[in-house]
Amino acid sequence: MPKADVWWVELGSVPLEPMLAWLNDEERDRWSRYLKDDDKQRFLLGASLSRAIVARSLGVAAADVPLERHCSRCEGPHGPVTSPLPGAPKLSVTHAGELVGVAASLDGLVGLDVEPSAGRAPLKDLSVVFGPDEIAGITRAGGGSEPFLRMWTRKEAVVKAVGVGFMVSLPDVVLTGPASAPRLLSWPAEEPGADRFPAETRMADVQAPRDHVGAVAVIAERAAGELVVAQHNGADLLTAAIPA
Ligand SMILES: CC(C)(COP(=O)(O)OP(=O)(O)OC[C@H]1O[C@@H](n2cnc3c(N)ncnc32)[C@H](O)[C@@H]1OP(=O)(O)O)[C@@H](O)C(=O)NCCC(=O)NCCS
Predict the structure, then answer these.
(1) Is the pLDDT of residue 121 over 80?
(2) DSSP string, 215-230
(3) Residue ranges of the domains in the chain?
(4) Which strands sit side by side in the sheet containing 99-105, from one edge to the other?
(5) Ligand 1 near 50 CB (within 6 A)
(6) 135 three-class SS
């Protein structure tokens, strides 16, 4: 069965100073360009948790874990985070308000998204993001923020696992409805992967801390069966990774 682990950490729950030393030059540059303290924290916690997860998986120090970000569109140093260390799990970072999450999987590319349960009203024009059957499913489920967020986080998890983010025709990334178990039904025909992603993508909803909803997607090339997700305390992992 394909597996993913998700670690959550809240802003203000761990001392940030020691983790600044883990950042590479590009990350330090980006961190210093954030104007708001919360944005600095979110970025630092996402990068640090990613390092601590890889460190735990490979038995190395978090400070020694290299991370890379490579945009497939413009070649710039942004996009999904990866570690080039052999055997490192695939990673996906998400932030929402006070919460930062990182998903890791050894079974394939992974995508994670989280949103506050009460934080987002449904879009006025659902057709920007959803296809007709998905909109019908959201409407059948009452049309409120719950089915909307369920579908939104599922869709974002899929496009993050593939690595394209929102640079894809979202209504053509077709999922099962909010009342059904999450599954990718089709991927845009004009994009690479239309032949494999629907069959290889495994998904699960997650109830995240502090009343957040989320979803995880794994492109599981080999592992058959349902996706199993285990959730963990990221503050504990980071605290253990910071040298005394
Ligand atoms: C990825 C994306 C869907 C995330 O949206 P969001 O709801 O604002 O943010 P989240 O908090 O859930 O996720 C942010 C994380 O997604 C990751 N990410 C960024 N681009 C990504 C991509 N293409 N695929 C997967 N993950 C991506 C990063 O790790 C980022 O964390 P960081 O800011 O700490 O580096 C959205 O930002 C997006 O589509 N970005 C790509 C846009 C693009 O490709 N532009 C072209 C630039 S040339």
Answers:
(1) no
(2) EEEEEESS--S--EEE
(3) 3-241
(4) 90-96, 99-105, 3-10, 228-233
(5) no
(6) helix
pLDDT band at 119 (very low <50, low <70, confident <90, very high): low
d(CA 37, CA 190): 41
Per-residue pLDDT reduced to its tens digit, 66-98: 999 988 888 888 899 999 999 999 999 999 989
**27 Cβ inside 6 Å of ligand 1:** no
CATH of domain 3-241: 3.90.470.20
Q: Is the CB of 68 under 6 A from ligand 1?
A: no
Ligand 1 centroid, distance to 243 Cα (angstroms): 30
Q: Which residue minimizes the CA distance to atom 48 of ligand 1?
A: 74
Structural element, H or E, at residue 111: strand 108-116
Q: How many CB atoms lie within 10 A of CB 201?
A: 28
CB atoms < 10 A from the CB of 137, how many?
20
For the Cβ of 155 lying below 6 angstroms from any atom of ligand 1, the answer is no
